[in-house]
Amino acid sequence: MGFLTSSIQVGARHARCAAQWQPHLLRTKAAILNAAALAQDRRMAVVFGAGLLHDIPLRELSSMFEEVVLVDIVHTLRTRLLAMIFSNVRLCALDVTGVATKLSKIVRGCEEALPRSEPRAFLDEKRLDFSVSVNLLSQLGWVPGRFLEGVRPEQDVAHMQRHLLEAHLHYLRHLPGHTALITDVRWRSELPPGAPVVVEPVAAQGWDVLQGVTLPETAAVWDWNIAPAPERSLHLDYIATVHAYPDWKHSCALTSA
Ligand SMILES: C[S@@+](CC[C@H](N)C(=O)[O-])C[C@H]1O[C@@H](n2cnc3c(N)ncnc32)[C@H](O)[C@@H]1O
After folding, report:
1. Which residue has the higher pLDDT, 155 or 11?
2. Which residue, by CA, sits nearest to atom 1 of ligand 1?
3. How far is CA 93 from CA 56, 74, 96, in A?
4. Distance from the alpha carbon of residue 13 to the mean position of ligand 1, in angstroms
5. Considering only CA atoms, which residue is closest to atom 11 of ligand 1?
């Protein structure tokens, strides 16, 4: 469905934009460790969206927990090699939405109805003390959205994308142990600071990347210069606003109170 290509693209962009990404990667690692410190016990930790491990403090997690599980739909060679360094780190190849296979059947015309996402992995894992979803949420709708483009009406695809995000948030709330969430929520494009005046008019704009799903307020908010010029635009930087929730269940409880 394009997950591997997408992962390779993230790796390539990281190599090109290492300096601009660094503050975000450090903030993410710190947020993960802050959240992990709130876990009541230190048996198993699960990282959803481990990807290429750029933003995962693997060494620290490995020494904090008896076992660390790195979940992603695709694990690149880099991740496999890094994970091998630590005897208590294991990889788990998993589609956290649980619908990818069904979507590919729909595209091949083998299935009709759009599936419901009802993830169950780790829900009965009694040793699970800490889970964190890392810069994954906004991605959950993107690849399926591209995949279904032209196959299903735009409105149905948008509805499906939103459902995938909501199902992940619901899942995090119901996992055993302490849970945390780190995600980009909005993107904006703007001229880099000190950029010379350009000849062509360039429109700075902002847009939601969570398909209309709103998240609670949080004190932990930062910018990620995800695609500095000229990555996506010759003149504009693309900047993501990232939110961290060190205690996702507590944040949800406050919202529903
Ligand atoms: C922006 S990356 C997160 C950053 C990552 N921690 C890193 O350092 O590369 C998003 C990750 O989510 C993964 N992903 C996207 N959809 C997924 C799904 N349905 N199930 C599991 N992982 C998924 C991608 O493979 C990718 O590694």
Report:
1. 155
2. 135
3. 17, 6, 9
4. 14
5. 49
